[in-house]
Write the structure tokens for this entry.
Amino acid sequence: MASNSSSFNFYRFQRQAMPILLGWAIGSIVTGALWHRDRSKYLQGMGGQFMAWGLVDGVIALMALTGARRKIAAWQAGDITPRQQAQEADQFERIVWANVVLDVGYVLGGRWWQRRHPEYPARQGMGVGVMLQGFFLLVWDILLALGVGRRRRGA
């Protein structure tokens, strides 16, 4: 057993955080499938976006959970040093902050798409779907980045 005694374990943080994204993904897929079957072209457009984004979010969450489990085992076996863990946490935090910028782009892009097609309810629904998914990811990524950053710095 390793003597890694840091009070913050980045891999456990990931393992605890990712089920939230996975839950959002599953909810998005289910909601999207229901909306996609509706008679309303607007809801069909939103539904398609929710299913697609849910699928991508689900894959990301499952990959992160799998990686976190593997890294926890390696950490406990002493195969990962505290410095390596800190570097991975730093890299993760930087990537998530970059995602925040992308999330703002999703929200703005969805709004642009919605406004660009006032005569097509399905496309308006697609735009709103992108905005809603982007907004969730914006909030999620900000909270995730702040959470890992605060814990890394011991605050």
